[in-house]
Amino acid sequence: MRSTLNIDNAEHIDVCPDCDLLMAKVQVKEGYVSHCPRCRHIIEHPTRLSIRNNFFCVFAGLMVYFPAMLLPVLQFTMVGHTEALSILVCVQTLFSTGNWGVGLVVFFSLMLVPLVQMILIIFITTRFYYQVKSDYLAPCFKWYGYLSAWGMLDIFMLSIIVAAIKLRDDAELEAGLGLYAFIALLIISALQTQLLNKKLVWTLIEKHGE
Question: Model's pTM, two decimal places?
């Protein structure tokens, strides 16, 4: 069966990344937003500040990343014994108790993925800002997309809430500075994802990667 899609007109067709709806490609003016008519997913929202906002957002994420991972998230006192737990200590405990599989998943998804994603975005946005051509822009942005499916900051936040609810009757809990840094990292990560204009990034990669 022959395809009903005309290959000659493929460059004039846009695809919704959320529901795969095919639609005619339109030129969106700066400051305006185009939506998918079926699922209302934002297709394009061109703005000159988009790349710069992403850089500052990711830079702020890097500033709170290390406090979120190294400082105590929760401090609990039980039977006169007080212990402060950070994310790094939790990962080390999993390794030391022989839970290598769980430890590796937590380390990769919670510590490594967010850091690598932020480094990739900073690398890409700085190349755009200084107009430096690079053959690594496209692979870096592809890897950023691949790693997005492995992030679990929100899941860990939910686990902290569940643990606090279960332990509140048996132990005295106190939030550490790491918890506030982690919440800030979670908010910044969500904001950066919303600000990221993937279509604009791919357009700039085509220009700067030549």
Answer: 0.76
Give dist(CA 193, CA 121) in Å, integer: 11
CB 40 within 8 A of CB 19: no
Q: Where are the domains of the chain?
A: 1-46, 49-208
In a 10 Å sphere around its CB, with 0-12 CB exposed, 13-18 middle and 19+ buried, how is residue 141 labelled?
buried
Distance CA 200, CA 54 (A): 12
Of 195, 184, 193, nearest to 65 (Cα)?
184
Burial level of 17, CB count in 10 A (0-12/13-18/19+)? middle
d(Cα 119, Cα 115) in Å, to the nearest integer?
6
111-130 pLDDT, tens digit per residue, is 999 999 999 999 999 988 88
62-79 core/surface letters (b: 16 or more CB in 10 A; e: else): bebbebbbebbbbbbeee
Sheet containing 81-85, strands listed edge to edge, beginning at the edge strand earlier in sequence? 81-85, 74-78, 172-175
Q: Single out the residue of 143, 72, 158 nearest to residue 112, CA to CA.
A: 143
